[in-house]
Amino acid sequence: YINNTFLKYSVITRIYQEHMQAHTSTTMLEANLALYNLYSIEDNDAAKKIVESAKILKSESFQAQNDPAYLQIRPRFDPRSIIEVRISMLQHQGFIYFFLQGPNSGVLLLDEKIKPYRAWNLLYAYLVIISSITISYILIFLRLRPLGKLRKKIRDFGAGKMQTSFKMRGQDEIAVIANELENTRQKIRNLIESRTLFMRNIMHELKTPIAKGRISAEMLESGKQKERFNRIFLRMESLINEFAMVEEVSTGFSHASCEEFRLIDIIDGAIDLAMVEESKVSQDVDAKLKVTADFNLFSTAIKNMIDNAMKYSPDKHIKISTQEGEIWFESRGERLKHPLAYYVQPFTKDENSRDSFGLGLYLVDAILHAHDMTLAYEYLEEGINRFIFEPIRK
């Protein structure tokens, strides 16, 4: 503070040097000093008293050229052309003074604009700055607070909570974006409801003729034809049920429906759904191991893995085990001819095969993604296909 204030001495010396070089009047000199709120103390006794009792804040010497009479308002002649001049910044009774002192005389100037440094001034400045920052922070926080709420709602909506409302009052940018999201949510909801209603109507209309077809097939006398038609109708009914399951996973699944179950209970439920003998399924699973899942959906995913093993494994056997949070399904058979991504598409089939894989692995993949898991595959040298349910690493 003192150093910055003391820089004003350069203005004072420049004004005096111009005054001496141009030989301007005393009135002009005082007018130039007044522009910088500097006023000469005319009373010599008062000036002397101030100089003697004032506190020196800073002092500096320099050499000046020209007549040294410029050191006072009423010039006095001195034949020397170069003199040593000292300028001091003084503090006295709450005022700041600049004292120019030459060899024979001096000038005392009062600076009416600059007040001396006081601790409370600095404290006041700090309080103003801190208050401004605090108020700015509060205002910014209040402005951005709706953004945090909007982020939470978007996360809930992405997790399957379709009833989440984005509607927000106001005309600011966040409110405009939130209301646009609400309009989009309504459109998505209407599309989902229309799609669900359409699928339900189709499945209902298909199930009725399938049921009638199965009844009619039971009336056939030929056992071969009867068995063939029953297999066809069972296949159609299975596809419809899988379509319904896919619809549930893709549009209506919510983590709120997930509960904690023992894995062996889910596997037992899958074996019942697959309608296979328990001897066909080997288990190496800790009886205390629990998973958080939708029981019906997760048991359906395991049931589809059992179905694949029964269909493509030469020994019609599958082993289910766990390893570090993963669920392994191992069965003998040939290596997959395509990457796993090919088989998780609906109705894909291998070359030279008349039967497609249907929706089995496609449904498994959809169910796993709904449970934050993914399907992986590896082929072991022993001629074993290993499919893995593994958690998605976040």
Description:
The chain is of the alpha+beta class and 394 residues long. It has 3 domains: 116 residues, no CATH class; 135 residues, Helix Hairpins (Orthogonal Bundle); 138 residues, Heat Shock Protein 90, CATH 3.30.565.10. It has 11 helices and 12 strands. It has a 5-stranded antiparallel β-sheet. A 5-stranded mixed β-sheet has the order 7-9-10-12-11. It has a two-stranded antiparallel sheet with strand order 6-8. A hairpin with a 4-residue loop joins strand 4 and strand 5. The chain is rod-shaped and about 140 Å long. The two termini are 55 Å apart. About 3% of the residues have low confidence.
Q: Numbering strands along the chain, what is their spatial order in the largest sheet? A: 1-5-4-3-2
Helix content: 40-55%
CATH architecture of the largest domain: 2-Layer Sandwich
How far apart the termini lie comes to: 55 Å
CATH homologous superfamily of the largest domain - what is it? Histidine kinase-like ATPase, C-terminal domain
CATH topology of the largest domain: Heat Shock Protein 90
Summarize this structure as a short list of keywords or feature phrases.
394 residues, 3 domains, Helix Hairpins, five-stranded antiparallel β-sheet, Heat Shock Protein 90, five-stranded mixed β-sheet, alpha+beta, rod-shaped, 11 helices
